[in-house]
Design brief:
The protein is mainly α. It has twelve helices and no strands. It is elongated, with a radius of gyration of 24 Å.
Length: 329
Amino acid sequence: MYITSPKKATFHLVSILISTLTTAFSSAMISYDQDVSVKNRKKNSEFYGYVKNTNLERTSTFVVMMLLAAFHNLSRTIGTALLLAVSGSTTFVIMGAEMAFYIGFKVLRNDFVLWIPGLEGALMYIAALIVHVIVKVLVDFTGLIHCRGAKLMGGSLFTFSTVLGQILPFVALSLYSASTTVENKTNTHKMNIALIVQACCWGLSVIAFFGLIDSEKLWTFYGTTTGAQATIQTFRSSDDPAIKMNAIFSNHSSFTESIKDEVIAYMRDNWAEWERTQPAWFTPKFIASVGDEFIPGRALHQLNEAAIETGGGARRRSSVLSVRVILGN
């Protein structure tokens, strides 16, 4: 509306900027809260923890995260608005091509299926498509840093998408300038200067962000690890049984199919000890979520006998799914 309107009201511009800052604050808050969570850092210390621990560092990082999201949102929004001013069909083709590339990239890397356990058949693919589209739109228009996780967009694809967001408005402005059908054209020279300034501000924010965060987490912004690879890595690298079991049984079975025998052997070696010590995570709910093939024969026999004694027949596994779309890491 602002770009195509014959009268450029300051009020409209202020409204757009307020919306941008609101979006930026929400994006920064989600990513910040997820990263500083003690539970998340314990569960996946290799991914979480890029925000350092002093108050000054945390405040500075959050402010820069807001600026990053704001400049990214402005860039993508201006680019989309310019494309829409030229042609709705052109906008659809360009954004559709981006989405097709993203989905195709996921499929080719065998990284399309979601981590959510229990999804099978057509539902598995429909849910994956919906979530991937949502994640792509979130990253495109908010730069949500949390989405760089291997089970969501992935580091390298996240960085590629955010850089592409800075290129889009210049491509759109070129099409806008060349179009002969656009009415009430905005001064393209001034707009080009504004886009250059905005891109430079985004670049400076990127430099400040990487200067503030823990350098050991830089790889998460360019890593190529898939969701399945990250899950297997968590299982193999952790010494905490709770983290190992969470990696196996809170993710889709296809993620760990290649190490199934390894998991069975680990559980066979440790199940008796867990029964004896009863750690906090070894609950009836957890046991009900474990497939029969993972439980040692003696323990499975005892579970079935206990279920029969209570009149329930052979033990029934839990069918309750905890679907947490954005918090998939």
